[in-house]
Amino acid sequence: MTRIRRLRRRLRSSVVFKNFLYMYNHAPKNYLCPFCLIVQGKKDSVETNQSDIIYQDRFITAWISSRWWPNNPGNVIIVPNKHYENIYDLPVNLAAKIQSLAKKVAIALKKVYPCDGVSQRQHNEPAGNQDIWHYHLQVFPRYKNDRLYENHPFKKLAPERERIEFAGKLREYFRNL
User: Per-domain residue ranges for the chain?
Assistant: First the structure.
């Protein structure tokens, strides 16, 4: 093993490095993570369930969000299966897997919905509007004049039957690849 590799390994395992990562965490003590529940096959507090999942492997899971914006139904949430609170904690190899799937989801949204464009959103810490303390990337179908960012206060819980329909279309798309 080279000297540089040994130094990197020592830095990653050092208390200083680990404390640096956790200084940007804001989850309350004893936080029950809704995204960890979904990954484990359980319902979360907003009724997301297994029928919403469009992709899952050993590392990441993606599902149709249970919260929809008025003009952008069917947005997808992608998470690492292991709990990482934010981008500061997320290992680079998982970030790459998440972005790779995000690209596939974006293409699927264009083919299946069909939308005019796609946006990705990812938030960190309270000032960055993070409200679930588990790293997640959202992929939104976009439509001309949809006013996604202006409609943020008007997002609502999507009915399960509608989520199942969107999830089914995306699962079918991925099955046929």
Answer: 33-175
Q: Where are the beta strands (DSSP E) in the chain?
A: 53-56, 60-64, 67-68, 76-80, 117-121, 137-142, 156-157
Architecture of domain 33-175: 2-Layer Sandwich (3.30)
Residues 6 or more apart whose Cβ sits within 8 Å of residue 88: 21, 24, 124
Looking at the DSSP assignment, which residues form a beta bridge with residue 99? none
Task: State how far the Cα of 48 lies from the Cα of 131, in Å rounded to an integer.
Answer: 16
Q: Which residues pair with 64 in a beta bridge?
A: 76
Rounded to an integer, what distance in angstroms lies between the CA atom of residue 80 and that of residue 132? Answer: 13
Q: What pTM does this model have?
A: 0.86
Each residue of 22-42: pLDDT tens digit?
578 889 889 999 999 999 988
pLDDT at 20 over 60: no
